[in-house]
From TrEMBL:
Location of the protein in the cell: Cell membrane; Membrane
Phylogenetic lineage: Bacteria, Bacillati, Bacillota, Bacilli, Lactobacillales
Listed Gene3D superfamilies: ATP synthase, F0 complex, subunit A
Record membrane topology: Multi-pass membrane protein
Transmembrane segments: 15-38, 75-96, 116-137, 206-231
Similarity remark: Belongs to the ATPase A chain family.
GO MF term list: proton-transporting ATP synthase activity, rotational mechanism
Function: Key component of the proton channel; it plays a direct role in the translocation of protons across the membrane.
GO biological process: proton motive force-driven plasma membrane ATP synthesis
NCBIfam families per the UniProt record, alphabetical: ATP_synt_6_or_A, PRK05815.1-4
UniProt KW keywords: ATP synthesis, Cell membrane, CF(0), Hydrogen ion transport, Ion transport, Membrane, Transmembrane, Transmembrane helix, Transport
Alphabetical list of SUPFAM superfamilies matching this protein: F1F0 ATP synthase subunit A
Classification via InterPro entries: ATP_syn_F0_a_bact/chloroplast, ATP_synth_F0_asu, ATP_synth_F0_asu_AS, F0_ATP_A_sf
Name of the protein described by the UniProt record: ATP synthase subunit a
């Protein structure tokens, strides 16, 4: 899936316009959905209020599975927001594509390694910061790198890098590969051969769209679950 990339520099820092626009669109969709779901709340929930309450219960369950005590409650909003953003980002490219002069300005932002690496970096940075805030710097170093025994220090250091890479690349690989296959079905089967190849391409593309929605949902769940696991490792005693 080859496409041109438009890059602009701000204060000397390069930004991929397609990634920025797609991420902004995902954020606006999440904001709009949550705002709509949370209007006119009632004591006896129904309709869209049931949906927002189910989502909150679902993400709170993810938090409790890793941090069941009172301390975990402070991360409920983080996991709720992160799950919705990644879920919408994973599905965005399946519903909307906005190519202009070879540059795709709206796509799944998580189909770019820059986006997933940034999300993973922010999540792990937050985990380390919360560890320092909980135990102090010396206590954080001892709990994260010298527990349960000092001999594991090299492995514990290496684990920080592997956690970062696997968290980012797992999400990127699954979403990117799904969009690549959809592009192949559309460009190589539906439109590039004789007219009758368009007929089998329709059900094939529909099946893969459904499978991609499933994969995108699972990857959003996996990302936020691992986020809570990594945070709990830093704020709880080994």
């Amino acid at each position: 899936m080859n496409e041109e990339v438009q890059v602009v520099k701000l204060f000397g820092i390069p930004f991929n316009v397609g990634n920025c626009v797609s991420g902004l669109v995902s954020a606006l969709i999440v904001f709009g959905l949550v705002y709509w779901f949370s209007r006119k709340l009632e004591l006896k929930p129904k309709g869209k209020q049931n949906m927002i309450e189910w989502l909150i219960d679902f993400t709170n369950g993810i938090v409790k599975s890793s941090m069941p005590d009172e301390q975990g409650k402070k991360y409920g909003l983080l996991i709720f927001t992160l799950f919705l953003f990644i879920f919408v980002s994973n599905q965005l490219g399946l519903a909307i594509q906005l190519p202009i002069n070879g540059v795709n300005y709206v796509k799944s932002p998580t189909a770019s390694p820059a986006t997933t690496l940034t999300l993973a970096f922010l999540v792990l940075l937050l985990a380390h910061m919360m560890g320092v805030a909980k135990f102090g710097f010396n206590g954080y170093v001892k709990n994260s790198y010298f527990s349960p025994m000092p001999a594991l220090f090299p492995i514990n250091v290496l684990e920080q890098f592997t956690n970062f890479l696997t968290l980012a690349l797992r999400l990127y690989g699954n979403i990117y590969s799904g969009e690549v296959l959809l592009t192949v079905i559309h460009d190589q089967l539906a439109t590039s051969h004789a007219p009758w190849t368009f007929i089998p391409a329709i059900p094939l593309e529909m099946v893969w769209q459904g499978f991609s929605i499933f994969i995108g949902s699972i990857q959003a769940y996996v990302f936020v679950t691992l986020t809570m696991v990594y945070i709990s490792q830093k704020v709880e005693k080994e």
